[in-house]
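step: validate -> pass
step: tokenize input -> pass
step: predict -> running
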Amino acid sequence: MARSDARLIRFAAVAAAVLLTIFILSKGSTTTYVPSTSNNNNQQSSNAAPVDPALAAAQKEKQEKSEEKTKAKTPAVGSGGKVAATFVSLARNQDLWSLIGSIRSVEDRFNRQFKHDWVFLNDEPFTEEFKRVTSALVSGNTKYGLIPKEHWSFPEWIDLEKAAATREEMKKNKIIYGDSISYRHMCRYESGFFYRHELLQDYEYYWRVEPDVKIYCDIDYDIFQWMKDNNKQYGFTISLHEYAATIETLWQETRTFIKEHPEYLPADNMMDFVSDDGGFSYNLCHFWSNFEIGNLNFWRGKAYSDYFEHLDKAGGFFYERWGDAPVHSIAAALFLPRDQVHYFPDVGYYHVPFHNCPIDDKFRLEHKCMCNPKDDFTFRGYSCGQKFHTVNKLEKPSNWQDYS
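step: predict -> pass
step: emit ->
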């Protein structure tokens, strides 16, 4: 009897110890509920403790980093074999709210079908807000690059006092952007460096998109693939005459270069688009480069690389105010066969103050174009559109004179 009592006492002691341990452990624990992403189960349990904000933030950051790593590994060329192409926007952080309209226009009219990537470049680091907002709008991958300082500064051979005197003189003469240093850095960068950025090395074609532009018409084919399939190296929507006071010696330097390198000019070049007298003078015609679709390998090639280096050493980006538009245009006209330069009559494009709007009524309605054909700039007097059609023997729309 005494032995049984002893067993009962020991059993009761062990049981009491176990119950005490369970009680202590239960007092020191909490239950965290992670809401389901399902629409049918997205409310927190009324019996659960609230999610720790610090823990939730850490989990979100970890997830975002994981997604970024996955996105970075996504190849530029899709599994379906589509052409390696991207949109390119040179933008400042303060351009965000004027740029998102451009992005939405391009996405709605074209890219939501094809999901090409988008590369953003800036001479300062992009803000988290810029990246968050733009990535939410783009259907492809988004990439954000910082421009190397040596690509956005005065090169060592530039006489800074001479450059400053030029800016002061242009300011006095009220030449647009005449006194701007940043504008000159931008023109030089777009002329000779954007295609060298590491983020663009995986791509063959690009489409330049700037703030405050609009695409007017539905584009139901992959423009990049069409460019590749048809061996087009450069495409534009608007052409016009350049402001002569900004490029006083550009053609002189161009003539010097082509005299030294006649081998870079193919037999069927388009000299007759940029010169009315066989190359003696420049008629100021150029493609408006705020819209351009092109093959990056053309800019990477030896002809253009040598041409840019010649111009850069001449100093006209700073001693005058050479724009990337005439530089690109002259190069495309001289170094490409004419059938590799393409005018897009079917995109519908706007950048203040000029419009490109298809003047064919049937096409405009079929592609849901939201533009007035009376605004079309193609055949207006200050445009070089008519000249482009003439020198290339392109058929003009039957009613073109009604819009000239």
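step: describe -> Residues 80-403 form a domain with the Spore Coat Polysaccharide Biosynthesis Protein SpsA; Chain A fold (CATH 3.90.550.10).
step: cleanup -> pass
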